[in-house]
Design a protein that fits this description.
Layout (H helix, E strand, L loop, with lengths): L13 E3 L8 H10 L4 E8 H6 L14 E6 L3 H14 L3 E6 L4 H5 L10 H12 L6 E6 L8 H12 L5 E5 L10 H4 L7 H10 L4 E5 L5 H8 L4 E4 L1 H5 L7 H5 L9 H17 L5 H7 L9 H11 L8 H10 L3
Parallel strand pairs: 1-2, 1-8, 2-3, 3-4, 4-5, 5-6, 6-7, 7-8
Length: about 325
């Protein structure tokens, strides 16, 4: 099997971060309606779930491309098995999680704690690259605990890139492996964008994207002056309509920007199919309540959806009534 002999043609200018319990296939379909260019990531999926789980953890909608699978694991053979399955299922990229600091993840010996084992990460990358032609990338932090020097970061990059990884997404905070919750680890350690900029200057041959604290497309533009890409997380989820201008503002598209109502209208057939297949309305509505963020009547929209979408038998009429409720506020 060739080792990434196919050229990496993915547009990495803007991507949406993998977020556990948030970036499921319903959210990703919703996001894709607003941006054709954004690179989407799955939630982190463990190798154990894919290999031993009873569900289909690789399911997605064809409309989601370009789509990357983020894997959690540290066993090279298991990661290779999952990467091969992902490639066979049509994923455009496989990404290794070396950034999540939760206790559960550490107990499984993956996530941010792997920054302390760059040789193992390199072995994992090498094993995956041996069995797939799609890009194998790494998402990591700038450091962990007291190991947060620039030299520590570059040693990690040197070792992993030598195994053939040429694309890194860097969360511009270090992670505290003990004492902070995952939420606190996204907020308390200081952001250090300059360190990520320096990494790109020192490794111009690598693709370096930045993650952490980015809240607007204007900020993305600033970061893109020095980097190859920007990954946005919670802002893209809580205020999803910022995605409607990604293609035009960052990727040179001349297509008209969809209105919020147009996005909702395009989402309705997907919701109807989900309901017809036996799904519950709130499986999807939890992802779209932020669509009208900042608009007059948005509170009425959110309230109606949150109070009614979870009810047994709730149907598409909830969406129409929620939208109508905005016009009376």
């Amino acid at each position: 099997m060739s080792r990434n002999t196919m050229p990496d043609t993915i547009n990495r200018t803007f991507s949406i971060a993998p977020m556990l319990d948030w970036t499921d296939r319903h959210y990703r379909y919703f996001a894709r309606l607003m941006s054709e260019q954004a690179l989407l990531y799955t939630e982190m999926v463990t190798t154990g779930a894919i290999i031993h789980g009873k569900g289909d953890y690789l399911a997605y909608n064809e409309e989601e491309h370009p789509l990357a699978l983020q894997l959690g694991g540290s066993n090279p053979a298991d990661l290779a098995t999952c990467a091969k399955l992902a490639a066979e299922r049509g994923y455009d990229e496989v990404n290794l999680n070396v950034g999540c600091p939760s206790d559960r993840v550490q107990n499984g010996r993956f996530g941010a704690c792997l920054m302390a084992e760059p040789k193992l990460v390199a072995q994992c990358v090498d094993a995956m690259r041996n069995v797939v032609d799609i890009p194998v990338t790494v998402k990591t932090r700038i450091g962990i605990d007291e190991q947060d020097s620039y030299e520590f970061l570059t040693d990690f990059i040197d070792t992993v890139s030598a195994a053939g990884c040429d694309t890194f997404i860097i969360h511009a905070r270090k992670a505290w492996l003990q004492g902070l919750s995952p939420k606190e680890n996204r907020e308390i350690p200081e952001l250090n964008y300059e360190r990520v900029y320096q990494l790109k200057r020192d490794y111009p041959q690598l693709s370096i994207s930045l993650n952490g604290g980015v809240k607007s497309l204007g900020e993305c533009t600033t970061h893109l002056e020095q980097l190859d890409g920007v990954m946005v997380g919670r802002e893209a989820y809580q205020n999803p309509y910022i995605l409607a201008e990604v293609d035009q503002s960052l990727c040179g598209s001349e297509k008209p920007v969809l209105s919020r109502d147009a996005v909702l209208e395009r989402m309705i057939p997907y919701i109807e199919k989900h309901l017809a297949d036996g799904g519950r309305l709130n499986h999807i509505t939890r992802h779209i309540t932020g669509l009208y963020q900042g608009e007059v009547g948005s509170r009425a929209w959110r309230r109606y959806v949150s109070e009614n979408a979870h009810r047994q038998g709730a149907g598409i009429e909830v969406i129409h009534q929620a939208r109508a409720s905005m016009d009376f506020k």
